[in-house]
Amino acid sequence: MQPLTSITSRTVVLPTRDIDTDQIIPARFLTATSREGFGEHVFHDLRYLSDGTLDPEFPLNAGSVRDHRILVAGKNFGCGSSREHAPWALLDYGFQAVISTEIADIFRNNSLKSGFLPVVVDPSTHEWLLNNPGAEVRISVADACLELPDGRQVSFPIDAFARHCLVEGVDQLGFLLQQDEAIAAFEERRAWKP
Amino acid sequence: MPKTLFEKVWDEHIVATETRDTPAVLYIDLHLIHEVTTPQAFAILRDLDLPVRRPDLTLATMDHSTPTLPGASFKDTRIISASAAQQILQMQKNCAQFGIELLDHDSDDRGIVHIIGPELGITQPGKTIVCGDSHTSTHGAFGALAFGIGTTEVGYVLATQCLLQRKPKTLAINITGKLQPGVSAKDLVLKIINQIGVDGGTGHVIEYRGETVAALSMDARMTICNMSIEAGARAGMMAPDDTTIEYLHGRPRAPSGADWQQAVDRWRSLHSDDEAQFDQETSIDTSDLQPMVTFGTNPGMVIGIDEPVPADNGDASFRKALDYMQLMPGKPLNDTAVDVVFIGSCTNARLSDLQQAAAVLEGRKIADGVQMLVVPGSQSIKRQAEDLGLDRVFRQAGAEWRESGCSMCLGMNGDTVASGKLSISTSNRNFEGRQGIGARTILASPMTAAASAVRGKVSDPREFLQGA
Question: Structure pTM?
Answer without folding.
Answer: 0.97
